[in-house]
Amino acid sequence: MESRNRSVPGAQAVARAATLLRLVSAGGEAGRALQELARGADLSRSTAHRLLTALRAEGLVDQDARSLRWLPGPELFLMGSAAATRYDVTHRARDIVRSLAVTTEESAFLSVRRGDETVCLVREEGAFPIRSFVLSEGVRFPLGVASAGLAILSFLPEAEIDAYLERHPELPQRWGASHDAGALRTRLAETRDRGYAVNPGLIVTGSWGMGAAVFDSAGRPEWALSLTGVEFRYGPERLPMLGRTLLAHAHQLTSRLSARRT
Fold first, then answer.
1. Is it the case that residue 89 has pLDDT exceeding 70?
2. CB 24 within 8 A of CB 61
3. What domains can be seen in the chain, in order of their start residue?
């Protein structure tokens, strides 16, 4: 990546601006502070502020006048609307995500693979009053960390899994020892055996997640359905039922999205 950035004039600035746009978008309606954005993009405050100011001039980000937090801008909405006809699957998936939430009474989600990350597209609340707020629309996680990304990574070809782990040796430092290559490979194998992923509170203690991959017409895992909730709702007596329900909804969505592309 670094050599490519040096060989293409302006590529580094574009990459930095794109990273900031992703971070701002993931902040949703609450927005994000300059310090948080600079830290997330691995930039100095002055560099982050300069890039954000330039993006605001183009309408791609906005800044709240009172809190000074940065928010997605109107031009970003227009660009997203133009791209939605090609990439958006939420209108075809929302009823399935809602059905999953109603059936399980847990919070249900649809996430999409974007490079080495998953991005949450849809959240539907279940009826159970105690909820986990680890995941919401726009939030990104590296593959293999949240249950959706673990499900997707599990069903990629082995060579792609190897390449991903080589690209991201920082996972255990950032997310804990349970995300080193050996532990992650064990969870990937377990996921393939079960058909669905289980995250036993590895991101936030006491907040469990389950994920099932959704495949495109070529058989590649490009999306995932997932559930999150408090630990006592995911005991051994209930987990298999949740897994079967999750897989049934994932198969339904796979069939629907594959039919769209044939």
1. yes
2. yes
3. 2-82 (1.10.10.10), 88-260 (3.30.450.40)
